[in-house]
Amino acid sequence: MLLKTFGWSFAITAIGLVAAAFYGGWTAFGIVAILAVLEISLSFDNAVVNAGILKKMSAFWQKIFLTVGVLIAVFGMRLVFPVAIVAISAKIGPIDAVDLALNDKDKYQQLVTDAHPSIAAFGGMFLLMIFLDFIFEDRDIQWLRWIERPLAKLGKVDMLSVCIALIVLLITSFTFAVHAHQHGGGHADKAQTVLISGIAGLVTYMVVGGLSGFFEDRLEEEEERTHEEEEEAERTGKKKPAVVLAGQAAFFMFLYLEVLDASFSFDGVIGAFAITNDIVLMALGLGIGAMYVRSLTVYLVRQGTLDDYVYLEHGAHYAIGALAVILLVTIQYQINEVITGLVGVVLIGWSFWSSVRRNKALAAAEGKGTTSDEKAEVSSGV
């Protein structure tokens, strides 16, 4: 099972490390290995959230996620994206941007750094919306009840998450402009860019997430009518296929996953520049890490880990909220990538530990013949 799920990741790791050694010797080999570890540590929460979505999809779409999705993640976000950002921000052609990445790495790194505020605003707002929609939803199982219960009540207010996200964006862009003005920097004009990029991230979330949710709801309605349709089909000899609907739902969920992965990859791509400004090594290292994140996502789905450890998804969403805040803060201040990675690891580790405690408490309650109401109290949260 382990080899079947992680087989491609192991193979890509071997190929990537060998390619790095041929490209730049042992130094390049070490840099690629470090970048791969960096990507995995920063994106573990991504795998947990992805698993929550992927488990609703068929085996076919899970394979698409591991094949076509990987091509988008590795070549699109880890190779094409940094070049495209430079081309857009520097107003040069894509070929010139590639030439710059290969032959003038210092200038290339500077251009990517200059584009960071707009990248962070887009990704930060997208991730913030994911966190807010999760935390404002009333759910049966709650991890930190003292936080989640009152927030779930507030979540009954329509469009509350959008309002909060827009307020956060306005505060971020305003403080960025004030800070740039006070320090005499040349970034005051970028405050508007930050605002527009943040709105673009918000709109992207609402469009992609809305379409995904719409088709997912329709798919669930279709599944509820499946038994009745099958009975009718037996009587009439006709059957209404639900393949198109399922395909639409899966496609938009797949699209949502890709945008989610893109948002998660922003901090990894930007953080990689702290280690190297060589785009080839960056693509190899982050690509290897992306493969493991994808394989881990499928592994969590097939092992049913999220069903066994019910607070993992909560911990991952709290990590998303922390990452969103960190991205927005990095528009103005520099934050070490180690802190970014540790925040996610600590939150997920805490949620895993809480899940283990919950499972032990439920097992003890079963052994003592506890009533169903008491069991529900134990399982609902801490």
From TrEMBL:
Keyword Cell inner membrane: no
Pfam families in the record: DUF475 (PF04332)
Protein's UniProt keywords contain Membrane: yes
Alphabetical UniProt keywords: Membrane, Transmembrane, Transmembrane helix
Domain of life per record: Bacteria
InterPro entries reported for this sequence: DUF475
Membrane-traversing stretches: 6-38, 64-90, 115-136, 157-181, 193-215, 241-257, 269-294, 315-333, 339-356
NCBIfam families reported for this sequence: PRK14013.1-3 (NF010613), PRK14013.2-5 (NF010619)
Protein name: DUF475 domain-containing protein
Organism name: Streptomyces fagopyri
